[in-house]
Amino acid sequence: MQDSFDSNCHFKVGCKFWIKGSNDFTMGPGDVKLIKKLIEFKNLTKAANVCNYSYKYAWKKIKNISEKTGKAIVKSHRGGKGGGGEVSVTPWGIHLVSLFESAEMQLNKVISKINADFVKKQS
């Protein structure tokens, strides 16, 4: 191992975060992506596929968020004879996405400032 600094090696700060609440509630980027895809497609199967989740796993995530927060984040509308029901995200679900994205934006600003300082210190 060499003691000298390798100028080809640069570092930056990265961060993973989630929103935590009571009742062991956590909501992370995967949950937010699923909710946003539900807003876009209004279909759990399509949203789950885009997120690389099984239908069952996606439904379990939605149910868990609703149970832990005490409010439904989706409202499902049953399909006709051929199925094809629709899922709409409730105002509560939209609010949770907004909270997460607001926190993410603030956190990214802080990380950008830290990384700007890291660049100076590595020069």
UniProtKB/TrEMBL annotation:
Molecular functions per Gene Ontology: DNA binding
InterPro entries membership? Molybdate_resp_trans_reg, WH-like_DNA-bd_sf, WH_DNA-bd_sf
Q: What is this protein called?
A: Winged helix-turn-helix domain-containing protein
Q: Which organism is it from?
A: Promethearchaeum syntrophicum
